[in-house]
Amino acid sequence: MYKIQKAEKLADKIYLMDVEAPRVARHCQPGQFIIVKMDEKGERIPLTICDFDREKGIVTIVFQTVGASTEKMAHLKAGDAFEDFVGPLGCPSELIGEDIEELKKKKLVFVAGGVGTAPVYPQVKWLHEHGIDADVIVGAKKMEAVAGNLYITTDDGSYVRKGMGTDVLKDLVNNQGKKYDRCIAIGPLIMMKFVCLLTKELGIPTIVSMNPIMVDGTGMCGACRLQVGDEIKFACVDGPEFDGHLVDFDQAMKRQQMYKTEEGRAMLKLQEGDTHHGGCGNCND
Fold first, then answer.
1. Which residue among 16, 52, 81, 270 is least enclosed by CB atoms within 10 Å?
2. What is the pTM of this model?
3. What is the pLDDT of residues 171-207, one digit of tens each?
4. Cβ contact 167:153 at 8 Å
């Protein structure tokens, strides 16, 4: 059992939990995710690792209630426990594998939307711990301690500035003379799509995290099937990070909607043939 040390409501339908998971905390890296299961019969839910404390053995997760399982999960309190807490899964952020001194020479900007703040935070924190500042455009204050420059924006202008993250990025580049070597965008699919359209126009290489399309989290269900350039990828095992300028967001969004119904899944299986279920071509489930 994996005990919940803290359970907190951050905003409407968005929750944060600190969970005792020493082995996961020892080995996880920014950009990876875990799968939680509340009880023996519970649904397996993939969630991004928001933060971790290796010494205390604590992993922080942030989730949004979107269905029955996450709604039930939102009612868990400190002292309750998860039946399973599996990870770390997926590939770490590509930043982790780069030369630190070379990274210090680069100008990085993160654009986070919705619960995309969760996977952005550990990456920015890791950079900060290695003496690397990054600009962060986000709709939350949590980044203040680790971001080089923080640009907080809300849709209605209720806090700091009004507008989308793309508006801020466009202003920073076109009006304030900012130059970036790389953009990392994490959030809803539609938000990442428009960030990538803008950064392609601005000539900024862009990495996106495709965790919003995960279901099973192991590559077996095929739900996170993704077209990246000329290749078929699976977000949970090949990612979650990909070149945003190569991702077919329209296909991903359409596929995500179809996958929610039995009829839609049957149609996808017909359309995608051997690459549908996990991509192995040998599954008849």
1. 270
2. 0.77
3. 889 888 899 999 999 888 898 999 999 999 999 999 9
4. yes
